[in-house]
Amino acid sequence: MNNLSYGGIVTKIKAMEAGLISNEEYQTIAELESTADFIAFLKNRPAYNKIFNNYDEHKIHRGQAERVFINSLYLDFSKIYEFANLAQRKYLDLLFFRYEVNILKSCLQMVYTNTDGYDLGLFTSFFNRHSEINVTALAGSCSMEEYIHNLKDTQYYTLFSNLQNTAATSPFDYQMQLDIYYFKKSWRLKDKLLNGDNLKTITHCFGSEIDLLNILWLYRSKRFFSLRPADSYGYVIPLTYKLTRGKLMQLMETITTEEFISVIKTTYYKKLSPSLEDGSVETACQKLLAKLYKDNLSRFPASMSPVNYYLFYKQNEIRRLTTALECIRYKLGPQDTLKYVMP
């Protein structure tokens, strides 16, 4: 497609960018002293006003607020989707798949923490039109058996039923396998649904994210869990992009973090090695992805890359706000808060 096909949606994205939290506003947030002050601040922001409108900032608790934050991302997505044409919606359908999986993971976590009441708010109507899953039923599940039963007649039922008959009994196990399922299916679907620059940009984004997630998961397994190489195979996405299959196998076979870093230094991602050594690898991966998404804007201007970048940036905003709320909860000072919120 030519640039004219994307003129309208690019203009839409530029207008929505005005609602993003600025660096100056993060400075203000860092100086707030309570959850109530924080929610009151967000109520004055157009992107968050509607989702917090029915909540009393003096009564909402931290966990509740964190679950509401993400609805701002989902609402933005729905606005873009409704504006997009049929061809552009094929691209957005792949992104919606990711959001659906994230919602499944949130409901799954609630089974293990004995909490309920997951609320999609204003996103509920859109979600129900585009998804087969019943969020209310899932969030109200009292056991994994009930949770899996509530997935019947969806694409996820067989996955969870099969996992239930294995040693996968922790939320981590279920969530990991759900992520692997998502990436494997999306990697196949992108080639069927997309072409041209849209296929190139999503391949670049998905492929890089798969590589980085595999590096992160394997690194954590070596550093924190002393996972044996033989057990690593069940915790990686069986796909590769810039990280070759041979190098991925080498990483899985390492025993220590020192060996792991030594192998990383021989790969496309060798620039991550200093962050692996000093423990800042998650921040380094986020910065690498941010640069990748931004570079795609100039590489593929006549594509959905501006939408991709906006939604990635918005998701990072949600992560920053969640971190800021944690800092406020623990009474950190403004400078310390900013170190965590904007590393």
Q: What is this entry, summarized?
A:
With 343 residues, this protein is an all-alpha fold.
Please give a structural write-up.
With 343 residues, the protein is an all-alpha fold. Helix content is 71%, strand content 0%. The protein is globular. The chain is built from 19 helices and no strands.
Main attributes of the structure:
343 residues; mainly alpha
Please state the overall shape, judged from the principal axes of the Cα atoms: globular
Strand content: under 5%
Rg, Å, rounded:
21 Å
Biggest sheet, open or closed, and with what strands and sense?
Answer: none
Number of strands: 0
What fraction, in percent, of the residue positions are helical? Answer: over 70%
- Unreliable stretches (pLDDT < 50, length at least 5) are none
Number of helices: 19
How far apart are the termini?
Answer: 38 Å
Structural class: mainly alpha
What is the helix/strand order?
A: HHHHHHHHHHHHHHHHHHH
How much is the average pLDDT?
Answer: 92
SSE arrangement:
Elements: H1 4-17, H2 23-30, H3 35-43, H4 46-52, H5 62-83, H6 86-113, H7 124-130, H8 135-139, H9 144-149, H10 157-164, H11 171-193, H12 196-223, H13 229-232, H14 245-253, H15 257-264, H16 273-278, H17 281-299, H18 305-329, H19 334-341
Helix pairs in contact: 2-19, 4-5, 5-18, 6-11, 11-12, 12-17, 14-15, 17-18, 18-19
